[in-house]
Design goal:
The complex is a heterodimer of chains A (308) and B (277). Chain A is built from 11 helices and 2 strands, in the order H-E-E-H-H-H-H-H-H-H-H-H-H. With 308 residues, chain A is mainly α. Chain A is globular. Chain A has a two-stranded antiparallel ribbon. Chain A folds into 2 domains: 38 residues; 228 residues, Orthogonal Bundle (MetI-like fold), CATH 1.10.3720. In chain A, 72% of the residues lie in helices and 2% in strands. Chain B has 277 residues and is mainly α. Chain B has a single domain, classed as MetI-like fold (Orthogonal Bundle), CATH 1.10.3720.10. Chain B contains 12 helices and no strands. In chain B, helix 2 packs across helix 11, helix 7 crosses helix 8 and helix 8 crosses helix 12. Classes of the chains: A mainly alpha (308), B mainly alpha (277). Chains A and B meet through helix 1, helix 2, helix 3, helix 4 and helix 5 of A and helix 1, helix 3, helix 4, helix 5 and helix 6 of B.
Chain lengths: 308, 277
């Protein structure tokens, strides 16, 4: 017994030695920068001289000066960015879930060339976001774009649309590109969940002659719901921090500005590190709340995984 | 009955075809566009009038694009090597040793993998400058650890948990240290998992944009996504679309080949990373 406990002590010591490089690296590139960002949010730091930043309390967030409210929380553009981000995240994740489910169900049935179709579905996922943004902005180009030309020829629209500039269309276009790019991820996650379902229920349903649509809503959907929820929250968090796609498609346009784009504009272009850090901290808190939700839902599976 | 079955399988295959076209068409159109130049560029034909390589020639002659590809390769490869090396040892400890605080550590790692990049941007900028790595490739390599390392550790831990206990017990009986167990006993079994996580880390680093845009300044240090985003023409309204599409094809095709070749591995990595969370 004494030997066993000595052995386990030695193993525990070895474990911490093994963990050390990762812990050092992660503290350096994750926890430290995060702490600094939160700290800068309470200072008047400027990009050109970040060292001589002075504390300003909550002024970057909200302050009342000379009869006016100032700070991120008093900026209408910030609130528009919050609304844009939510609109983007909710609509794109909803469409991706529905579309992803359809694709997953198709890939779950066996048919000839299924491997090839699955490979084709993976293509948008593999394309760098910047590249897919460029591909789509070319197809959606107002003068020479393929989309306008096809819609004109089919008589669906009377004159070419300025997809990326028009206030009503820009967000729709951005969402369409995001849906194209990330639906494969959703489809694969749902497919993985479908493949883990017990086949007995389906046999029973088939023998009882239950309509496939009923089987879907009564059997399939309830069974994959836990995995689906995790996938949806995962994607939702990803959508909340969206940057590349919006920045490349519509730059700093107010119609599509998200929280990340807003924070970066202040941090880098306006060089207001303090103010930008305050906005970044707010975004972090929103995402952290979602992570908390994700972990509470995911916990059950984490423990189940450990017991196995 | 037969007619109904035919209609059903017909509409099923129509759906399959629609999915494939939807997924692949934008890439196809980018390839078509990259072969057009002059006035052909502005006619939306679905088949190029001929294979015109002018855009590709211009891309490598007038843009610093070859350098950007080399930079991206260096950054992505280094990121893979570093995160696998650090990830294997860490995930051995997390998967095979019971110690206090393990669950908390796992949850923290998962949490870090969801940090919005923008939330660490100003702190990371300061760190990169303090280390003297601003506008250098090592600056990007170090900062990319924030998203590749948690993911690598998480997936490798999941894989390593499933290795049989007996192997390890036999090795301990023979007096093997933990280091020997990791390098001699587990490593040979871990190859599939290493390929999966390595590929995903490579793709992540190859595609990253925000840090690369913010932490580099000169053309010689830029990676491919930034180089593409910054390709510009004579004026803001005259983007050289042919060249941009040629660049897009050049960076995408190797990735697509990689993904098609390692489909199964990538899918298993993605689903372990997310579904089992």
């Amino acid at each position: 017994m004494a030997g066993a406990s000595r052995l386990s002590r030695r193993r525990t010591r070895a474990a911490w030695v093994f963990l050390a490089p990762m812990l050092v690296l992660l503290s350096l590139v994750a926890l430290w920068p995060l702490a600094r960002t939160i700290f800068y949010g309470f200072t008047d730091a400027n990009l050109l001289h970040m060292q001589d930043a002075e504390g300003v309390g909550f002024a970057n967030y909200l302050s009342h000066e000379g009869g006016r409210w100032r700070g991120v929380l008093a900026d209408p553009l910030w609130w528009q960015s919050v609304a844009n981000t939510l609109e983007f995240a909710v609509i794109s994740v909803t469409i991706e879930t529905v579309l992803g489910f359809v694709i997953a169900l198709v890939l779950h049935t066996s048919f000839r060339l299924r491997g090839l179709v699955r490979a084709a579905v993976l293509v948008p996922w593999a394309i760098p976001t910047v590249v897919s943004a460029k591909m789509w902005s070319w197809m959606l180009n107002d003068q020479f774009g393929l989309v306008n030309s096809v819609l004109l020829r089919l008589g669906i629209i009377a004159q070419p649309y300025a997809w990326m500039v028009d206030a009503d269309l820009a967000m729709k276009a951005v969402i369409a590109v995001d849906v194209w790019k990330t639906t494969p991820f959703m489809a694969l996650l749902i497919l993985a969940a479908l493949q883990m379902l017990p086949t007995e229920c389906y046999e029973a349903a088939r023998i009882d002659g239950i309509h496939p649509v009923h089987v879907f809503f009564r059997v399939t959907l309830p069974l994959v719901r836990p995995a689906l929820m995790v996938a949806v929250i995962f994607r939702f968090m990803d959508a909340l921090r969206v940057f590349d796609l919006i920045y490349v498609l519509t730059s700093n346009s107010e119609q599509t500005m998200t929280m990340s784009v807003y924070a970066r504009q202040h941090l880098v272009e306006f060089q207001e590190v303090g103010y930008g850090s305050a906005a970044a901290t707010l975004l972090f808190m929103v995402v952290a709340a979602c992570v908390g939700l994700y972990l509470t839902i995911g916990r059950v599976r984490l423990q189940a995984g450990e017991e196995a | 009955m037969k007619a109904r079955a035919a209609i059903r399988s017909g509409s099923f295959y129509a759906l399959v075809a629609a999915i494939v076209v939807y997924a692949v068409f934008p890439l196809y159109y980018a390839i078509v566009t990259s072969f057009k130049s002059g006035s052909a560029l502005f006619r939306p034909d679905l088949v190029p009038p001929g294979i015109d390589l002018e855009n590709y020639v211009l891309l490598f002659r007038e843009q610093p694009f070859a350098g950007a590809i080399v930079n991206s390769l260096v950054v992505a490869t280094s990121v893979v090597v570093l995160s696998l090396f650090v990830g294997v040892t860490a995930s051995f400890a997390l998967a095979r040793v019971q110690f206090r605080g393990r669950s908390l550590l796992l949850v923290t790692i998962l949490g870090v993998s969801m940090f919005p990049q923008i939330a660490v941007l100003s702190g990371m900028f300061q760190l990169v400058r303090a280390l003297g790595l601003y506008n250098t490739l090592p600056g990007l390599i170090v900062s990319y650890m924030i998203f590749t390392l948690p993911f690598t550790v998480w997936v490798l831990t999941t894989f390593m948990r499933e290795l049989p206990k007996e192997l390890e017990e036999a090795a301990i009986m023979d007096g093997a240290t933990s280091w020997v167990i990791v390098t001699r006993v587990f490593m040979p079994l871990l190859w599939p998992a290493l390929v999966t996580t390595g590929l995903l880390a490579f793709i992540g680093a190859w595609n990253e944009f925000l840090f690369a845009l913010t932490f580099t300044l000169t053309n010689t240090q830029r990676t491919v996504p930034v180089a593409i985003a910054l390709i510009s023409g004579a004026s803001q309204h005259e983007l050289p679309w042919g060249i941009i599409m040629a660049a897009s094809v050049v960076v995408t095709l190797p990735l697509v080949v990689l993904v098609l070749a390692f489909q199964r591995k990538i899918i298993s990595g993605l689903t372990v990373g997310a579904v089992k969370g």
